[in-house]
Prior knowledge:
Elements (H helix, E strand, L loop, with lengths): L12 H23 L1 H28 L7
Helix pairs in contact: 1-2
Organism: Marivita cryptomonadis
Keywords: Aminotransferase, Membrane, Transferase, Transmembrane, Transmembrane helix
Protein name: Histidinol phosphate aminotransferase
Amino acid sequence: MDHRHPKRVEDYTTANLVLIFINLLWIFGVIWAQFGLMAVILSGWVLNYGVTRLAQYKASRAIQWPRKSDA
């Protein structure tokens, strides 16, 4: 068996963040055209709330169950 180290992969974080931004723009544009500005504001607030709750959940899980590498 050949023991070769895996090669480094490129970091696509910036590209993914740009694509998320572009997708949010067109989705908010469609919501605005169909339902109005208040629906865009409300959906943005809901997304922000959901991301905040997810971050809180992940932080609480990290505190409760530390990984073996952390110990």
